[in-house]
């Protein structure tokens, strides 16, 4: 059954003489720049409040050493992990190599987080204009509803793509440029959209590759439904493709110059992904619940887009294109074990489905908020707000709501009087609680990070330049590893991404360092052997003996009263021990 038939537009489409292709350039209202900037600023602050923020988390483990240019320092000359970061496939970080050395890195990362969110909010506002949210209040409402949507909070289902998360990474900045490329393509600005996708590729190569598919779907939609000449599309695509290639060139050059990839991996790459972090790559690592929820989110986006009266073709085409990329990711591991293809992280493209669905749902909710029909304005809009902007598990109920509203659009006067205040109060209260929880979580993350920063600063001042450290290895997210996670050691590792940056000292191994195998497969034997050995160590004496045998000078562990020897120094919950007495 066609969803367009099940959920028809709320109003008749625009007359044939007014083509969506020409709307944005010739019929869009002149924006109030001050109001536009105010909405963008408030939206940026709202997004930061909803996600919380703590620099030095997660992927900053790879990025902070690049900012410090650690691979230029002699003590890292033989460190395969640090050396591999020279070939990190993001022009953004390579451009900033060696630009930070000290605590001001947190200011730099926070500034980039603000910029990232401003780009995202700007792209959302561009979608508002394409979907004909005419007034400032409509744009503001639409933007707030997208940012509050449960589908863009945290990570995507069945792929773990980053959405609104609590730390800055280039991938999440690419979310904003990706949405901007799609919305400009929807307006018919093909050259500009491909140029912006070049920026996306420069930020994150595989996100740029994903985005090409929904762009092709949108271009095809313009040719198929709006009668745009193929020659016109080809000319614009050629100009845009040239700009895209210019942005992509330095990233491609860096990838091709990588000496760690000149030999084919001597191990099964799918097996490595399964033991490291399979959720970006292997569909069998995700639960049926995750897969089902992503399918529901896609259906919600398609159904609500189908109910929009105009300018919906681009949104639906983009949704189908994004879903096609994810579906390709489902089958790819069964068809190929190619490192190059699997490194496209196709399952992560589910994040695009999440964002486009949030846009579609928010567009319909905004129309209902400003509808002249009391039932839409006072019942259906608040109910859609509660279902889409609280818990993601409520998204299946959005489909139920759309069906019920289709069959019985009118609601009794008594219900209309009380529904809106009750529903709005519930939705606002939930999001206020969410903001509070995000603030508490960020504060705890900063406290844990500060322990590692203090340890790293002390190590740089009081240890030999070539000293090796055995740190808690961190959580293993893989399947089939030889040792189970140790909750105590995993807790100690929280905040550890900042250690190498502040200490300028080598760490023996960590679970996150396994990501380097993606761009440096020659690192796999070292990483796999070390992580397997370290995760098998159960006690501090075991770790001290292991460190002594491998020439590791220091062991970082928890501060427990039963420790067999006093620590050299203590930093909050972390204690530093020397292995030298064991070695002697």
Automatic annotation (TrEMBL):
Domain of life: Bacteria
Keyword Transmembrane helix: yes
Segments crossing the lipid bilayer: 35-55, 136-155, 161-182, 194-217, 237-257, 317-335, 347-366, 378-403, 418-439
Keyword tRNA processing listed: no
Sorted UniProt keywords: Membrane, Transmembrane, Transmembrane helix
Protein name: Glycosyltransferase RgtA/B/C/D-like domain-containing protein
Organism, as annotated: Gluconacetobacter diazotrophicus
